[in-house]
Amino acid sequence: MSAVPFQEPESHGRLNLSAGLASVSVALILVLLKLWGLGQTGALSIAATLVDSAMDLLMSAGGLLAIVYAAKPADEDHAFGHSSAEDLAALMQSVFILVSAGVIAVASLRRLLAAEPPEIMAEGAGALVLGASVMLTAGLVLWQRRVVRRTGNAVVAADSVHYIGDLIPSVGGLLALWASAAFGLTRIDSVVALAAAGLMALGAFGIGRRAFDALMDRRADPAIIAGIARIVERFPGVRGFHDLKTRTAGSRIFVNLHIELDGRQTLDEAHAISAALRREIVRAYPQADVLIHKDPVGVTRHPEDPRD
């Protein structure tokens, strides 16, 4: 077999860490801004985004710890590395999002069903807070998406999905404050908050499903599997292949593969083909950890070991 220990590129580690630090910093700034804005306005739309930002801060801090832990190299106790920490963190993120969505939904419904519409004060201050929130969140999301394109980190991807969901409620909150100031339509604030809760719940289910699939060793994206198959099919010296299996863990893809070679080759020649193929796969998919088994062309499986 041909395999070498997987090592995440140093640049990927720095990018993931920068995204984690940016997420924590933005979440902390937004919590402080929204606390001030809520005290000034009493608007439920701001309260909704405040609860969300507070949960963001907790999740971002946990995500940052997961990024640091997942970047640790493989050791004696964790021969395949620590990248599953990313999936565990993403799964916990989904639970936190669902809880915060439930809190916001209950508060929104209570206000909508109240006999008297809620009073919203200092709409200008609230608009200032939400405007700053939109700008900071948009900047963070742009950086996170760039990092995800480069590294495929699951924690950064989950954070990015959640912050994208934050943008819509914040814009909706701005509209609610405008409607309150211009027309006295204070109940729109509760409607916007309820919609925000629904979006958060949908995002949580998506994040949780992807994390659960990874923890259950679900195969890699079919497009990636097809891409690996094309590389193997066209590779010089490879007469065929079988038993191409993949699984994901965090941002890593584990690939197991049997290739068929000319049985008359020397071991050195067979190893050279296998090692070159592995390098080609990793060049195309840097997050891949590849293990290749070599079979002579036409070999039959031993009846007592059908998986040989």
UniProtKB/TrEMBL annotation:
Residue intervals of the Cation efflux protein cytoplasmic domain: 222-296
Pfam families hit by this protein: Cation_efflux, ZT_dimer
Location relative to the cell: Membrane
Transmembrane segments annotated in the record for this chain: 15-37, 43-68, 88-108, 120-143, 163-185, 191-208
Record membrane topology: Multi-pass membrane protein
Main location: membrane
UniProt GO MF annotations: cadmium ion transmembrane transporter activity; ferrous iron transmembrane transporter activity; zinc efflux antiporter activity
UniProt keyword terms in alphabetical order: Cell membrane, Membrane, Transmembrane, Transmembrane helix, Transport
GO cellular component: plasma membrane
One biological process term in Gene Ontology: intracellular zinc ion homeostasis
UniProt xrefs under InterPro entries: Cation_efflux (IPR002524), Cation_efflux_CTD (IPR027470), Cation_efflux_CTD_sf (IPR036837), Cation_efflux_TM (IPR058533), Cation_efflux_TMD_sf (IPR027469), CDF_Transporter (IPR050291)
Cation efflux protein transmembrane domain span: 21-216
SUPFAM superfamilies (alphabetical): Cation efflux protein cytoplasmic domain-like, Cation efflux protein transmembrane domain-like
Family to which this protein belongs: Belongs to the cation diffusion facilitator (CDF) transporter (TC 2.A.4) family.
Name of this chain's protein: Cation diffusion facilitator family transporter
